[in-house]
Each structure stands twice: as C-alpha cells, then as structure tokens.
Design goal:
Radius of gyration: 19 Å
Number of domains: 1
Strand order of the largest sheet: 2-1-3-4-5-10
CATH architecture: 3-Layer(aba) Sandwich
Largest sheet: 6 strands, parallel
Distance between the termini: 39 Å
Oligomer: single chain
Number of strands: 13
CATH class: Alpha Beta
C-alpha cells in the first residue's frame, strides 16, 4: 500500500462507497478524492475527462451506480442500463487515458445466469440466460467487467472487478419500493411494530434463498483485493478474467431473513408471504473459494449485521431517503 496515493472513490455517498471511505481512512490513506453527483456527473463524458485531467488520480474505486431492488429494476430498466453503462465507460476509459494503473470495479452477483449451478463460480459468467427482472442492470455490470478485462488485455493495466452478493448496512436506501431486500424489510417491519400491526407481508413466496454481506465486510474485501500483488491476484483468476466473487458462502431463505429482522426489531406479529409478487431467481449463492484462498473471509454474522443496520436506521430515520 502507498498511503500517499491519490485515491478516487466514485459513489462515495452511497452505501458501498461510504464504507470504502471508512476503510481507507482506517488504513491511513491521506489523499481520498470524492465528488458528489452535483459536482461531477459521471454520465457526462466531457466532465469526467476534465476531472481526471485535473486531479492526477493514482487509484480508482468505482462504486458509483444506479441500484435498486426488483421493483425498481422492473420499473426503470432504461435508466438502469443507460446510466450504469455511461458511468463505467466514462470512468474506466478516462482512468486509462490519464494513466491510472489500478482500478477496482464493483459489480453484482446478478451477472450470473438465473439457473446457474449453485454456488455460483466466476466461470459461470455468460453461460446462460439472466434473470429477467434485472437483466438491463446485469448486462451493464457485465459490460463493466469486460471493459476492465479488455483494457487489461490490450494495455496491460491492472483493473480488477469484485462481484458482491446482496449487501446491507449503514447508509442503505430504505425506500419502501425501490430498495433491496434487507432495508425494505427493516423499514416495513419497523413501521408495522410502530403501528401495532398484527402481521407484515413480504414479496413472493419467501422461499428463494439469498446470501447477504454486511457492507463493512465488502469494503474490507475491496481494499484487500485492490492491494494484492498483481502476480498473486492473477494466480487466482482465469486468464482474461478480472472478476472475483465476494460473499459469505452462506445463504438463507427470504422468509428466514425476515424472521431474523423481526427478532432484532422485536416485532411479535406474523410474517406473511405474497405469492402474487415475483420471487426472482430461486437461489443465489456465491462460490467464494478463490477469495478464501487469497486469505480473506467475511467476519460479520447476519444477526449481528442486521442489528447494526437497524441501529443505523433508527439513528438516521429522519434523514433517510423515503
């Protein structure tokens, strides 16, 4: 690690970006560069070019993205594919153009086929059809991986990609319709308790299984992977393949995670399912053997992580994006 490196964290106000900032500061990095979306529109090619020309960046964490749950992906597919394609294309190309040798692109487990063999290995990429509810977002993320691989192949830079499983934790989006599973359930169950309701409904059958990773673990993994010696990293990825899975290697059903959240919140009502709503993929579990072989494993257990997320939710309830 060179603690004097000028590190650009794109998307620093988001859940993942803010966690990466916290981790970089813990590690002692002295020059962390950030811009809000009002200060720098990452979908604007000319603006991104000017930014890189002026800032003399050494290293990039590309955590900026348009994200959301099943409802948001179904409702805004054009925004999801366009904005994510533009962000990654602009940042990755301008990083290369201005001499940035190290970049970490944050993808998503949705890049893998809907019916991929479980647990999903990195080699499953492009081996089958994607889940239809978030296909535009997944295609954009796959394009980001391939951008990194292509620039590595043609120009010899060191651009890596990490594929996190479902993330949660401080700084999450708790919108009642556009958020991911855990924040949506935290808000719904919290409000049910506050209103004295006897039950709360969750989307789908509750049977699909998902893997969840606390965002602070994701940030630690990101900094760990970014700082691995190139020869060590390359020994654990396939030729011409820049991405590596980040997760816990443990999954649970949506109903089970809802019950865990209810226990943390101390909601004593009934958890009901709504089979009229889509389930999404039946199971999404990451194979994290490569990351374990590199020497990193997640530390935060689900119940502890949910408690941390709920405490953050309660502290910031007046300022949350509702």
């Amino acid at each position: 690690m060179n603690l004097d490196s000028r590190v650009f964290v794109a998307g620093h106000r988001g859940m993942v970006g803010s966690a990466i900032i916290r981790q970089l500061k813990r590690k002692g990095y002295r020059y962390i560069i950030t811009r809000t979306s009002l200060e720098l529109d990452l979908t604007n090619q000319a603006a991104v070019a000017v930014f890189f020309a002026e800032e003399n960046i050494d290293m990039v964490y590309l955590a900026a993205a348009k994200v959301g749950g099943i409802h948001a992906n179904n409702t805004y597919p054009a925004e999801f594919i366009y904005q994510n394609l533009m962000i990654e294309a602009n940042v990755i190309h301008q990083a290369f153009t201005h001499g940035v040798q190290k970049l970490l692109f944050l993808g998503s487990s949705c890049i893998y086929p809907k019916l991929a063999e479980q647990p999903m290995q990195e080699s499953a990429l492009l081996s089958g059809y994607l889940e239809s509810t978030n296909e535009p977002y997944a295609i954009a993320k796959i394009a980001g991986i391939k951008l990194c691989e292509s620039y590595n192949r043609q120009y010899g830079v060191d651009y890596r990609s990490v594929m996190p499983t479902n993330l949660y934790g401080p700084g999450d989006n708790y919108h009642p319709e556009n958020s991911h599973v855990i924040p949506a359930l935290i808000r719904r169950i919290h409000e049910a308790k506050e209103q004295g309701l006897s039950d709360v409904s969750i989307w789908g059958t509750g049977m699909p299984k998902r893997e969840f990773l606390h965002v602070d673990d994701m940030a630690k993994a990101s900094v760990f992977i970014m700082n691995l010696d190139k020869s060590i990293y390359c020994n654990h990825v396939e030729p011409m393949q820049s991405h590596i899975n980040v997760g816990t290697g443990i999954d649970c059903s949506i109903l089970e995670v809802a019950q865990t959240i209810a226990n943390v919140i101390e909601f004593e009502g009934q958890i009901k399912t709504d089979p009229s709503k889509p389930d999404g993929a039946p199971r999404k579990l990451m194979d994290v053997d490569r990351l374990r072989q590199l020497g990193w494993e997640a530390e935060i257990k689900l119940d502890i992580g949910v408690r941390d997320a709920y405490e953050s939710f309660c502290k910031n309830i007046d300022n949350l994006r509702m």
